[in-house]
Design brief:
627 residues; alpha/beta; six-stranded parallel β-sheet; 17% strand; globular; binds thiamine diphosphate; binds magnesium ion
Length: 627
Amino acid sequence: MPAETVRLTTAQALVRFLAAQYSERDGIEQRLIPGVWGIFGHGNVAGLGQALLQASQTGEADLPYYLARNEQAMVHASAAFAKMKNRLQTFACTASTGPGSTNMITGAALATTNRLPVLLLPSDMFASRVPDPVLQQLEDTRAGDVTVNDAFRPVSKYFDRIARPEQLIPAALAAMRVLTDPVETGAVTLCLPQDVQAEAFDWPVEFFRKRIWRIGRPVPESDAVARVAALLRSAERPLIVAGGGVVYSEAEAELRAFAEATGIPVADTHAGKGAVPWDHPAAVGGLGSTGTTAANALAAEADVVLGIGTRYSDFTTASHTVFADPDVTFANLNVARLDAAKHSAEMLLADAKSGLAALGKALEGWSVGADYRAEATQLADIWRATADECFNLNHGPLPAQTEILGALNEALDDSDVVINAAGSMPGDLQMLWRARDPKAYNVEYAYSCMGYEIAAGVGTKMAAPEREVVVLVGDGSYLMLSSEITTLVSEGLKVIIVIVQNHGFASIGALSESLGSQRFGTKYRYRDEQSGLLDGEVLPVDLAANAASFGAEVITAQSVAEFREAIAKAKANTRTTVVHVETDLTGPNPPGSAWWEVPVSEVSELDSTREAFDTYADHKREQRHYL
Ligand SMILES: Cc1ncc(C[n+]2csc(CCOP(=O)(O)OP(=O)(O)O)c2C)c(N)n1
Ligand SMILES: [Mg+2]
């Protein structure tokens, strides 16, 4: 008997299919794609646009539509949503052809580098090619099948172009497989030619049945557990590096129990922060270039490093200098072989939760020495006192950024979420922020993308409406992508946005100075007629008025005391509230204790560059391959 079919356009079929996809982990089933973000243009208005409208009017598929103001932002919102949902749910994003689609490429790269699932549906040129070249079409003299969407290939974990309706069947199934695979996940891109979106086909009804994508917990091989346990038993100064994999796997309780039983201190990365509460006896805080003195001192003498769910970015390893023992060895518990193999490690391929449980069992009765435990606790206490000083500087006339962060940290509840991505704040937060909840800290530091912050606020609030969501955004990042404030307003989502105004790049300014480049081009100033440089008067830019013009409530704070009041008011508010505060561009910053490799010009006419090069060369000598 021939299979039962239903006649639908490709776009209608995709909408129906997406509404029937579920993820499941630990017995909890939920919609994998609970909605679609989009901005319509000629590429998708009559295809996916019609399908989404029809679904909402007939109720044949439950797939709500959300309108973004910028395509990059809707991908960030989706990635932040997925992060908050521990990668068990995400959104689809539809964009028109050409610029609408290529605007999503930065978001795709962010999702893929952060290992966060997002489903991207860029519209594409006509599969028929009849009206070529259509508006916004790239013409390649060497190849007829190249479009701007080919630029998604390197930043997508799965890429396909649906040139005929029935190609959607294998492509959609492959897309779901990749989105729900903790090893493979990232941006998944299905390019939809605008004519194919509207073309009808007789689809097998079976394609639209409810599908449950099971997200398992791979268990480690017993031999691998034994090898890693033996390595740890031989260690005198082991250190744990807790990364995002701990949080995505929801392995916090296992990690805490493991650290308590073994006494191994736990350092964290941005993505792993909160997995162990900041005041836990084993916690030593952030590791690496912007790490605490405690974590970095322990790393310097660690003999065995146990990386759990970490990708070991250069900030975590201080560009391969933070682990300084010449005989240091690594063991990596990771679901992905890519990460498990890093630093010539003994690999423990497994989900963090199941891997930690197995390793904990194998190490029963073993613990590090009491002296080492005491040393780690003491180092952590010293760092906490340093952080307290950073929070209470009484700096003037403008407050220091660290004082604002301290006041904010104190004002927030344990479950409140703080968001940031780029500038000088990630470093300060990595050192100073006190997180108790694994979902309370969302600093995107794989792609460190200016413009993620406010868009991520949208996605995070959608994922966790019960939590207070606080976006920290520098003036530079605000100027890059603040338009989603209007989305917060139109969706009735309440987020607190703290704009930290310092009239330029505190981060890159300080970096520039340290590298001999004299803060060149890092301030938002008038061009000075005499010097010809951008170092004239401060610009009359009013970001508070700008935010108010988007429909947010705005409070301006002139001091730390006023900032505290503003946050209290913002917390009491029920609608999106922006707190604008000006801080000192030049710090003071928390004390750094590790390097970050940024190459300095080897030959130069400038004294500042020559001096910086000597320092750079000294650090280069400390760098290791970890072979
Ligand atoms: C999209 C993007 N462009 C450029 C950079 C490089 N970059 C990193 S921090 C920074 C300046 C950020 O300025 P602001 O948001 O004001 O933060 P501040 O440094 O003042 O704290 C720049 C340009 C980046 N991370 N992302
Ligand atoms: Mg700034």
